[in-house]
Amino acid sequence: MKALITGASSGIGRDFARQLSRRGFDLILAARRVPRMEELARELPTHVRVVGVDLSCKDQCFELYREVCGDRIDVMINCAGFGLFGPFDETDLDRELELIDVNIRAVHILTKLFYRDFKKRGSGYLLNVASSAAFQPGPLLSSYYASKAYVLRLTQALAEELRRDGSGVYIGALCPGPVRTEFDAVANVRFSLKGLSSEFVARYALDKMFAHKTVIVPGMQMKAALFGERFLPQSAIVRLAYYMQKRKKGPKP
After folding, report:
1. Which domain holds residue 65?
2. Which of 65, 115, 144, 170 is catalytic?
3. Which residues of the chain have pLDDT under 50?
């Protein structure tokens, strides 16, 4: 059995690698920071192949697929992504376009390519890492929230197509709340809620993935919050979201 994980150099992606290796999967790890992945590979009990790739570049997304498509990939996890905090008129446009390239375009390309292969074969697991941010608008993290909404809705739509076809292929979306990773440092935010450990999130997500759960939300606190939102008007949700995002503002660099 073999798994491909993008964004495998840190955070949830790194812990996906650890969890899958413990379950007997050989791995292909893909990210920009090759030394980090090589260090991770040395600690894992199964065979690991490291691929350096910048998923903000469209051509490198296709190159990654070409490099691994000869392998029989059983599990494909799109985990690469990042956030950007700040008022929309102040955030850097180039950085936002890079965010869109990584969080949306790369996920779309790799999902499309492996989805086609899995459907032809009639088997395979494809997990896209979205976020609890996908369920609502996110003032001050607007591009990130919007990007994760794309990932969630694309995944749900494809899951229904597979169900209608009676396919043996699985696709699902992981939608965690705050997780203790490097995300907050990259986005320059401080979470107002205590985050879950990336190890817990990865283990929980894999359990639910193999149980064929389409939308995976780790943690009772986040499940309760999302359930409560059903009873609020959208205007109240977006105002509450702004208040929560405002509390995340970190110190000026």
Report:
1. 2-246
2. 144
3. 186-187, 251-253
Question: Helix, strand, coil % (nearest 5) of the chain?
Answer: 50, 15, 35
CB 126 within 8 A of CB 170: yes
Measured distance CA(52)–CA(202) in Å, rounded: 22
Residue 144: active-site member: yes
- Taking the alpha carbons at both ends of the chain, their separation in whole angstroms is 44
Strands (E), the chain: 2-6, 26-31, 48-52, 75-78, 125-129, 170-174, 179-180, 196-197, 215-216
Q: Read off the pLDDT of residues 115-152 as tens digits, 9 standing for 90 and up.
A: 999 999 999 999 999 999 998 888 899 999 999 999 99
Q: What is the pLDDT of residues 158-169, one digit of tens each?
A: 999 999 999 999
Kindly give, in sequence order, each residue whose CB lies less than 8 Å from that of residue 89, ignoring residues fewer than 6 positions away.
none
Residue 181, domain CATH: 3.40.50.720
* Domain contains 7: yes
Confirm if 170 and 212 have CB atoms less than 8 A apart: yes
Quote the CA–CA distance of 166 and 161 in Å, as a whole number: 9
pTM of the full structure: 0.85
